[in-house]
Every structure is written in structure tokens, then in C-alpha cells.
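Take a minute with the sequence and C-alpha cells given here and flag any C-alpha cell that looks odd. Thanks in advance.
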Amino acid sequence: MIDWEDYKFHPVVYLPDEYKVLDLTQGSWKFEKDMYCIGKYDEVRPNVYTTKLFEGIRNVHIGIDIGGPVGTPCMAFMNGKISHFGYNPDDGDYGNVVITEHTISGIKIWALYGHLDNKSIIAKFKNQKIKAGEIIGYFGKEDENGGWEPHLHFQLSLVQPDTHDLPGVVSLDDRDKALQIYPDPRLVLGPIY
């Protein structure tokens, strides 16, 4: 078992004192330009995932979205290493993504940073050491981040990924299992909502 409260994690994104917590259960993922906002974990979003990638049935979000200006830096929450990185080209996918690996209370955990810009995956290599606070990447524009408003999809995983991808949205049928595999990112991010 991970003793999350025994650790002080570095912020993944520096948020301003005021930001909006979105309710995406009724609407689409759209917000004002350069506005900082949060999209919730374990939120059913029936009208958000409309591309072929989601098969018309995947709509439960199992990461946390942090919206903000293009180029916003995303940082490592603790020391670790690069596990995977790459580009997911499908419409509605992550675009550029980096996955880091960490050990907490003797247990390995992976963190996915999705919807990054193109330069975020340049000069990275597998097993590259990273330090808490080191910049992992930057919020990408729509043409490089899968077609989304600029934001970070941050997700934790207790299962080692095979590649630079994790399912950030699952079906209602897969929800319970996914919540066991992909813990609430607020364990790292803190009480941001």
C-alpha cells in the first residue's frame, strides 16, 4: 500500500490562486482562452468524446485535466525516470505524451502527461533520470495535442504501460476496474477541487 500522505510532491503545474473547476457532465471541453481550469477525475462526460477513437461508449474520464495557456510548463512531481514518450496521432487522442516512472513506498507508479507540444518529446530517452520540479513538457496547441483546447491530461497508473499510451477515458462497464488501476491524481496534485 502506498502511504501518499508521507510524501510532499512538487506541483505538476503552477496554478494561479483562482481557477475554474469545470462541470463536463453536460457540455463540451471548451473554455476561455488562457483561462486556467480543472477537469475532474472519474467524471462521466457524455458529450465530450465524439471522435471515432472513443467508439461512442468511452466517456468516463480517469485523469485530471488542467487547462491553461499554450506553452504552460508541466513538471515532474518527484524524482523518477522517463518510461515512454511519443506521439498519438488519432483525432481526439493525446498528441504528444510523456510517461514517467516513480517509486513511492516501494511501489512503482507511472504518470502520464498528455496533450503536450511537439518539443516536449525531443531529446528524451527511455530511462532518462528526472528530478522533482524538472520540466517534462508544455501544453500544446490543438494541431499538436490531439485537437483539444490547450491543457494537460495528468493520469496515474499502478500498471506498467506497454507503450506511450494509457486509456484516459473508459466505458461505464470498465469504470470500476479502471479506478483500481488508475488512482485519483489528487493523491499527487493535492486538493485542487
About this structure: The first strand starts at residue 20 and ends at 21.
